[in-house]
Amino acid sequence: MTATKKLYIKTYGCQMNVYDSERMSEALGGAGYETTDSPDGADMILLNTCHIREKAAEKVYSELGRFKRLKAENPELKIGVAGCVAQAEGEEIMRRQPLVDLVVGPQSYHRLPEMEARTRGGERAIDTDFPEEDKFEKLRSRPKARRGPAAFLTVQEGCDKFCAFCVVPYTRGAEMSRPVDRVMSEARDLVERGVREVTLLGQNVNAYHGQGPTGEYSLARLIRTLSDIDGLERIRFTTSHPNDMTDDLIAAHGECEKLMPYLHLPVQSGSDRILKRMNRSHTAESYLRLIERIRAARPDILISGDFIVGFPEETDADFQATMDLIEAVHYGQAFSFKYSTRPGTPAAERAQVDPDVATDRLHRLQALISRQQRAVQDSMVGREVSVLFEKPGRLPGQMVGKSDHLHAVHVADSNASVGEISRVRIEDSGPNSLAGVIL
Ligand code: SAH
Ligand code: SF4
Ligand code: F3S
Fold it and tell me: At what angle are helices 316-329 and 284-297 packed, to 10 degrees?
């Protein structure tokens, strides 16, 4: 029996990276590793990276530089880079940073234990293939240990949409959907381990079309099938593309009790001219009509979005169109970014917007979004919501959880335990969370 080795994983980027980090730590669990929450004293450090914007990618190199001291203290320490920077710049990482022992792209995680073994033999290992075999089939089955009540579950990966600004189709590869029975057994497994809520993940999750026992399943059909699992109480999904919001998925929001009233539906811009240049293949108007139909199916749904400001050639009028769209939708949540030039994407070649102008637009957009977010959160006061408790709060007796609309909610002096779902009356709305009492 070999002694347990320590693995430290640092995760950047989107929820799929959070899911992948969990799967990598499970895969390396089979190779004698257990995870630790500090890089000090670790036998292996893995950075699970994000390439979406320039800043995200640059962080990797500065972080790696900091591990020099640890490697000097422990020459046996292995350093690995996973995720989307690994996929996009694997060779360059190896060249620029001799400290790195291992580079593994998102489609090769099942090969990690074997790669780790090679590094123990003194090799530097790199794998950024898009292999034929399905990594999910080959990844170790999930251990039975108990875990927190909310979990991510990847059902779809990759993207064929090729928005003109985005690296994801290059780093994650072509769209693929996991078969229904695999998703079902992983979900049942999670429920056995204490999970009450799953968030189905995919870069274009609503383009899901997995093979099931009776033909091909849409995301809506998958959600309805997952709803039959006893003990699984809540289902969410992210991220969706407006063009894949089908009638059956809209209907599911009205019919499926376990499907939570929250939808992240990025639009990026409110200007048709810019949407066209972004290769989004929808218009501002079609997006607004879609939101209307979704709200007709589920009137209290909270809409969330993503926005890019300062996309090449964006004028003041284009930006104003985005602000108008935001006014029309009234978002409960939104993420907004200054356009970042990504090498190899079509938009990188075009006339860039003055960075100060882009910064000013970002601030104005974020101020509007904050007002809307706050108004939606404040409108919860006096209402009864359901809350899934995820952890104890900082004060004695306090518990913290998420409402069906994904607001953070805390209750004082409660006997509730982690994993419990309670009816809560909201009494107050603070800067980042709601406060309530259990009914
Ligand atoms: N697959 C998801 C997530 C993509 S990345 C989707 O399609 O929505 C998350 C967000 O990052 C995008 O929605 C977009 O708003 C932003 N983003 C992507 N590329 C970017 C870039 N080059 N510069 C700035 N923001 C970007
Ligand atoms: Fe990127 Fe567009 Fe695909 Fe989303 S839909 S991952 S923004 S290319
Ligand atoms: Fe980043 Fe890759 Fe996710 S680029 S946002 S980690 S898919």
Answer: 10
203 pocket-lining for ligand 2 (C-beta < 6 Å): yes
Burial class (CB in 10 A: 0-12, 13-18, 19+), 58: exposed
CA dihedral sign, ordered 282, 222, 129, 60: positive
Instruction: Tell which atom from ligand 2 comes closest to the C-alpha of 159.
Output: 3
Please tell me the distance between residue 72's alpha carbon and the centre of ligand 3 in angstroms. Answer: 31
- 256 in a known ligand binding site: no
- CB distance 312 to ligand 2 below 6 Å: no
Please tell me the residue having the least CA distance from ligand 1 atom 5.
52
Q: Are the C-beta atoms of residues 130 and 108 closer than 8 Å to each other?
A: no
User: How far apart are the C-alpha atoms of 335 and 240, rounded to whole Å?
Assistant: 14
Number of the ligand 2 atom closest to the C-alpha atom of 167: 1
Q: Is the dihedral of CA 388, 49, 175, 329 positive or negative?
A: positive
Which residues contact ligand 1 via a Cβ below 6 A? 52-53, 165-166, 168, 203, 239, 241, 266, 268, 306, 308, 337, 339-340, 342
pTM over 0.90: yes
DSSP 130-160: --SS-HHHHSPPPP-----SEEEEE-EE---
Number of the ligand 3 atom closest to the C-alpha atom of 85: 4
Cα-to-centroid distance, 266 and ligand 1 (Å): 9
Q: Which of 288, 296, 301 is nearest to 327 (CA)?
A: 288
C-alpha separations of 214 from 177, 200, 211, 221, 229 in Å = 16, 21, 8, 11, 18
Nearest to 63 by CA among 49, 77, 83, 43: 49
Rounded to whole angstroms, the Cα distance separating 352 from 296 reads 39
What residue owns the CA closest to ligand 1's atom 11? 52
Report, in angstroms and rounded to the nearest whole number, the Rg of the chain calculated over CA atoms. 22
Q: How far is CA 358 from CA 117, 126, 316, 337, in A?
A: 47, 38, 10, 10
Q: What domains appear along the chain, each with residue ranges and CATH number?
A: 5-127 (3.40.50.12160), 146-260 (3.30.750.210), 262-379 (3.30.750.200), 384-438 (2.40.50.140)
To test the pocket of ligand 2, the residue of 16, 52, 163 to mutate (highest count of ligand atoms within 8 Å of its CB) is: 163
CB-CB neighbours of 46 under 10 Å = 28
pLDDT averages per 10-residue partition of the chain, 439 residues: 84 97 93 94 97 91 92 95 97 95 96 95 94 86 86 97 97 96 96 97 98 96 98 98 98 98 98 98 98 98 98 98 98 98 95 97 98 98 98 93 98 90 97 95
